[in-house]
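My current task is to audit a protein record that another person submitted. Alongside the sequence sits a line of tokens, each denoting a local backbone shape. Where you disagree with what is written, explain briefly why. This is what I was given:
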Amino acid sequence: MEFQHELIIPDEGLPFKLFLFEGGSGNYVREKHWHTSIEIFAVLQGSLSFFLNEEEHPLKAGELIIINSNEIHSIHAPQANQTVVLQIPLKQFEDYFTAQRFIRFLSTANPMDKRLTSLIQEMYKIYSEKETGYEFKIRAAFYEILYLLVSNYRVTEAREKEIRHSRRLDALSKITTYMREHYREEMKLSELASMFGYSDAYLSRMFQKYAKVNFKSYLQDIRMAYAYRELMNTDHTIGQIALDNGFCSSRGFSKDFYKRYGILPSEMRREKEQKGQKSAID
């Protein structure tokens, strides 16, 4: 199985992640991957193609696609486009799970697509402008989206094959969810394996097979993602950020940060401050 698990972390203080698709400039390919969250791509300008189970789904401006939890997909964007991506943690739908802890939504061609696209576009506008009280306004649009999904898109009868396919990845999803909730704490593979009823070797193979990284690397990915967000959005010291996010020291954090981003955290923060000052002058 040549596909990777994608780590998704909601935006700070909000129950979702919202952003512009990184392949907006075109000439972009995202290889096969999967994630636990529900993901909606709403194309505002241009075009791109999704591949679900090798079946192509071309999208143009005004169209959207819903990617279900644990659904393996790839993205081809040869042309420039503007696409807003909304990622929703699966736990937002737990009251609507089937007995098998399963939920699935229609991917495309729904009469409510136009309204759903409009709401996502509205969310992105609110999120970009960040006016006073925007958190309330953006949640209003978000909860209407949740309502539309469960009332107009939810598939109430799933095929056994789909459920079995989801179960293969669901075991690792539960483990990675736990890791995201406890990433600040000291965490060992042996303890995690015992907690979920696996041997160390089996859990290690599970990470290599389905996430394409080892346990330690995946844990560091989580810690680094949260640390990066804190670095860019707070004035906390680098030492404080390191310790708050599970790193043993600021030195170790800086070393890992440089390896990943090619720049020290102190330098990245300085660049961000300089850009902010320049924008204020302009």
In short: The longest strand covers residues 38-52. The chain has a mean pLDDT of 86.
